[in-house]
Amino acid sequence: MATTSDIRNGLCIRYNNDIYKIVEFLHVKPGKGPAFVRTKLKSVTNGKVVDNTFPAGRKIDDVRVETHKFQFLYHDGEFYHFMNEADYSQIRLLEAALDNPGLMKEGEIVTIIINSEDNMPLSVDLPASVILEVTHTEPGVKGNTATNATKPATVETGASVNVPLFINEGDKIKVETTKGTYQERIKE
Fold it and tell me: Where do the Elongation factor P C-terminal domain residues begin and end (predicted)?
């Protein structure tokens, strides 16, 4: 058993007869009244996101997990297939277990969190950022740069990312995986 002081991003807990992963949390100590922890929880079974507030010091039921490095192999329309880097065993997961599957390209190394009690995969954590090639984007219009103007671009995985106007087809860009946002252009 853990308490609210042990809450951190990525912690898996048992709550309302389901297993949730903590996506965001904030310890709040108001001037008047007791402290509390505001959390955003994502269900690892159906992907549903729930906001919840725990009073400070409350006991929470954490789930013992192991992390393993897996390589993303391919997507067959229904399942995403991964191979364990240590023993070359393969698993397949539904899209609900993945946070941002549109940013994964074949061969990408990801971390899969596995429940150590029943060896069931709980969630897939992508690297903090990925480098993808822009396959389609409209050309930028000159003189349209009074503010931080962006345009949609399709990357090699099929995902759409808003990029600055100077990005062209064939450019490689770094994309933050948690929010799916453009970070920088990669020079070659």
Answer: 130-185
Q: What pLDDT was estimated at residue 141?
A: 67
**Residue 51: predicted pLDDT:** 92
Same domain for 141 and 104?
A: no
The DSSP 8-state label assigned to residue 96 in this structure reads: G
- Rounded distance, CA 23 to CA 11, Å? 8
Q: Which residue has the higher pLDDT, 35 or 95?
A: 35
Query: Which of 62, 86, 107 corresponds to the end of one domain?
Result: 62
pLDDT in tens, 84-105: 888 888 888 887 777 778 888 8
Burial pattern 81-119, b for ≥16 Cβ within 10 A else e, equals: bbeeeeeeeebebeeebbbbbbbbeeebebebbbbeeee
Is residue 157 within 8 A of residue 173, CB to CB? The reply is no
Bridge partners (DSSP) of residue 114 are 66, 121
137 burial level (CB within 10 Å; 0-12, 13-18, 19+): buried
Question: How many whole angstroms separate alpha carbon 47 and alpha carbon 45?
Answer: 6
| Structural domain of 110 | 65-125
- Tens digit of pLDDT for each residue in 125-167? 888 888 888 888 887 666 656 667 788 888 888 888 888 888 8
CATH assignment at residue 58: 2.30.30.30
